[in-house]
Amino acid sequence: MRPRVLCGVLAAVALSVTACGGGGDGSTGKAAGGGRSGFPVTVKDCEGAETSFDGPPEKIVTSNASSLEMLMWLGAGDKVIGTGFPPGKGTMPAQFAAKAAKVPVLGRMVIGKERLLGSGADLYIDSFASMDMMGGAGEGPRPEEFRAAGIKHMFLHSTACAAQRDKPVTDLSGVEEDITELGRVTGTSRRAAELVTGMRKKTAAVRKALADVPESERPTYFFFDYDAGTKQPVAVCGKQVANAVITQAGARNVFAGCDGDFKQVGWEDVVAKNPDWIQLGVRNRGSEAADDKAFEEAADFLRSYGPTKGLKAVKEGHFLRIGSEATTIGGVRSADTVREIAHTLYPDRVK
Question: How far apart are the C-alpha atoms of 21 and 4, rounded to whole Å?
Fold first, then answer.
């Protein structure tokens, strides 16, 4: 992945999504399944290497706000002693905002190696395996260094292991598995099951509503990552969580066929696809007014830029103003994004 694309992708991964929540405040702690029942627990990294837990961790560091939010939903947020890529203003669900704001920030972006190893954590939850700890921005700790520091290292597969997938992702099963696995590791399996059930209920309702819409009649869809740059667009490919969200919502990602998770493409490629709908992928600016301004700037660019102003979606005003984080970052609220996109595309079918 090229450095400019990587920077844009990491910025997207850094923040939490902004759609509606999955129900409940996730603050149940040990009541959600706690104690040491269900242990030992063994998890695997993207290459299949195993890490075992004899009991739930007590001091957790998260690589970014998405993994922090997952722990909040699970009721394990009080175990977090630090995070990288902290949540931006207004990006956390309201019920978690105050607690999340108190989590020490160990890095505005990727946490530095020495600071991570010296954090006192007994678990580091990593979203960046496929990005090699941000490539040139700094080399992460080696497995033996994690062991020497007493830190166990686990990964969110839905975001970290895209490179290891052998086919595109078209549903949220990977995200659900991450939530389930975090529940097992933190002793909150009961809460994890509740969250996954809620997600599945929402996506099943969308699938049912669209069951009789043939694949060939589903609208084509382009995710325009406005903040990744306009000179050369960055497409979300088939192995990115966004492809699953778009597919579940009843649309056809025009770049589902590109390998990996993100890829730089040319505007001529977008023009050739001539999508029916374009999502204005703007990252959270911290307020509704600022977000609206950024969405309008993205739309204005497409309306005025020579190669794109003739696109079908642009001429018909078929824009979706849904934040980048809500689509490209897996989490409990991914199911809400599926429903939001589906409602926009099929307002008579999905209420």
Answer: 32
How many residues does this entry show for the chain? 351
Compute CA distances 31 → 26, 55, 121, 190, 277, whole Å: 11, 15, 23, 9, 44
Residue 1: the pLDDT is: 42
Q: How many domains does the chain have?
A: 2
Range of the domain at 329: 213-345
Do 193 and 232 sit in the same domain of this protein? no
User: Does residue 120 belong to any structural domain of this protein?
Assistant: yes
Question: CA–CA separation, 170 vs 284, rounded Å?
Answer: 25
Residues 189, 218, single domain; the answer is no
Name, in order, each residue with C-beta under 8 angstroms of 119's C-beta and a sequence gap of 6 or more. Answer: 59, 61, 81, 82, 106, 111, 151
CA-CA distance, 181 to 176, in Å (whole number)?
A: 9
Q: Is residue 221 part of a domain?
A: yes
Whether residues 55 and 120 fall in one domain: yes
CA-CA distance, 48 to 22, in Å (whole number)? 30
Beta carbons within 10 angstroms of residue 264's beta carbon:
18
10 Å Cβ neighbour count for 229? 14
**CA dist., res. 120 & res. 61, Å (int):** 9
Residue 22 lies in a domain: no
DSSP secondary structure letters along 158-176: HHHTGGG-SS---SSHHHH
How far is 35 from 246, CA to CA, in rounded Å?
A: 38
**Residues 191, 244: one domain?**
no
CB 314 within 8 A of CB 298: no
14-61 per-position pLDDT tens digit: 443 333 334 444 434 443 444 467 899 999 998 899 999 999 999 999
Alpha helices in the chain (DSSP H): 3-14, 65-74, 94-101, 113-117, 143-148, 157-160, 173-186, 189-209, 241-248, 267-273, 288-304, 312-315, 324-328, 334-345
Residue in the structure block whose two tokens are 């069951």: 211
Same domain, 74 and 122: yes
Distance separating alpha carbons of residues 67 and 278, to the nearest angstrom: 28
Domain identity same for 193 and 84: yes
Q: Note the pLDDT tens digit of each residue in 294-322.
A: 999 999 999 999 999 999 999 999 999 99
